[in-house]
Amino acid sequence: MFQPTREQARKFFFDTWRQYREGTALSALQRMALEVMLLHPEYQALLDDPDAYLEQDYTPESGSMNPFLHLSLHLAIDEQLSIDRPPGVRAAFERLLTIAGDRHHALHALLDCLGEALWQAQRLGEAPDERMYMECVRRHIQT
């Protein structure tokens, strides 16, 4: 499993954004990341300034969302949907999409659940609980 450092992950986003702005060819993964970046214009100025944001800390106490975590969670969800893992996530996403009527809004429902599952796993020092994750997704479908 590829586990980049915080700096490597951030440089990936910065480099992808720079290459996009320069019109340079992107890899398949970079194209996926770019799609996510284009969904989030609120992060684009940050992506233009790696010197200012490469080492920026985003803590819960600061009250601001970590944009790199957010973009990374989007990529993780894209991967989950492409392989339907956990099983049933693709069908659940299609239901969320029907309910929400907006792809980005439906993705954010999954993102909320994935973020919660990862937080719980980190807190407990365990692997993420796919069952808990899918229960959260089902709750989003029911509301």
Topology:
Blueprint: H1 6-22, H2 28-39, H3 44-47, H4 50-53, H5 67-83, H6 89-100, H7 103-124, H8 130-142
Helix pairs in contact: 1-2, 2-5, 5-7, 6-7, 6-8, 7-8
What does this protein structure show overall?
By secondary structure, the protein is mostly helical. The protein has 2 domains: 1-65, no CATH class; 84-143, no CATH class. It is 71% helix and 0% strand. It contains 8 helices and no strands. It has helices at 6-22, 28-39, 44-47, 50-53, 67-83, 89-100, 103-124, 130-142. The protein is globular and about 40 Å long.
Descriptors:
mainly alpha; 2 domains; 143 residues; 71% helix
Write the element-wise H/E pattern from the N-terminal end onward. HHHHHHHH
Determine Rg (CA atoms, Å).
16 Å
Q: Which structural category do the helix and sheet elements fall into?
A: mainly alpha
Distance between the termini: 35 Å
User: What's the shape?
Assistant: globular
Largest sheet geometry = none
The low-confidence parts are none
Compose a concise summary of this entry:
This protein is an all-alpha fold. The chain has helices at residues 6-22, 28-39, 44-47, 50-53, 67-83, 89-100, 103-124, 130-142.
